[in-house]
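Our consortium's second objective concerns turning raw sequence data into structural hypotheses that experimental partners can test. To show how far this objective has progressed, the report includes one record in full. It was chosen at random from the queue rather than selected for favorable results. The single chain below, 113 residues long, was entered without modification.
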Amino acid sequence: MITEKEQRAVALFERVTEVTGQEEADSILAELVEISMMHHGFAHEEAVRRTKENIGYHAGYFSNEIRERVERLFDCEHPFFGRIAIKGPPTVSEAFKMGQEFGAKLRRQREEN
């Protein structure tokens, strides 16, 4: 069963791509970090790192404009593609290749364990 805090985290992640102001972004980030610390037991620094990584990944499913805004407001980047403001958006071929490489890496790790 999903807890109230997990439901709140889902609702906050849904809002991430709609935020346009820094104050709201900071508030959402702080609440997500707090949830991460409570739910997973992470220290603050680790909770911030993981939360920003998750926000960056989530933003990658949206338009380049939304992704750029989210990365700027939340000071994050996509964990595979990097910051769109620095690297630009990946091409379809680049994204596909990264996915293949990541999948191959996961297969190797499973085989080793």
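The partners drew two points from this record. The mean pLDDT is 94. The chain has six helices and no strands. Both points have been shared with the crystallography group to help prioritize constructs.
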